[in-house]
Amino acid sequence: MNNIFYYETIIGKIGIVENGMAITQMNFAEKMPKGININETVLLKRANMQLQEYFCGKRKIFDLPLAPSGTEFQQKVWNSLLEIPYGKTKSYKDIAKNVGNIKAARAVGMANNKNPIFIIIPCHRVIGANGKLVGYAGGLSVKEKLLAIEKQNYESIIAIRSYQVKM
Fold first, then answer.
1. What domains appear along the chain, each with residue ranges and CATH number?
2. Residue 115, CA atoms < 13 Å, CB-side half-sphere
3. What predicted TM-score, i.e. pTM, was given to this entire model?
4. From CA 19, how far away is CA 43, in angstroms rounded?
5. Catalytic residue among 44, 66, 119, 123
6. Which residue spans adopt a coiled-coil conformation according to this UniProt entry (predicted)?
7. Longest CA span, the chain
8. CA distances from 144 to 7, 147, 150 (A)
9. Is 123 marked active-site?
């Protein structure tokens, strides 16, 4: 049985869904998917805790079982998104190249748009070839905020490492 629970975050209310074994989707609104129980499970609590740590800059990598539902191509794109390091961005063209079809940047954009587990599968780290922010299910202001969180914390890590090396 699938379960959902809603959590308040710095980017608004987020619903997290699990199937008893893995996180399957997230949503921004109180949009209730059909056939799902409102039930805060141990896995959902763990996912929320990791999201809150991410928002505070304490978590760079999520450690959760994931089971997004999508086509074979979408799965390839989503796996490629998981390879984008914290604090970094890639273009749609970069992802297309990574999944083996350099001409598929538009299809990558569509797969990115269908990512059912945003933030954890970091579709917000994908930007236009010109470096501009383009498209995000939660809106560009949310994408900008997520990237700002990562940039700030990434630069702090680099500054600390630089300081440690100089000692």
1. 2-55 (3.30.160), 72-157 (1.10.10.10)
2. 28
3. 0.85
4. 10
5. 123
6. none
7. 58
8. 21, 5, 10
9. yes
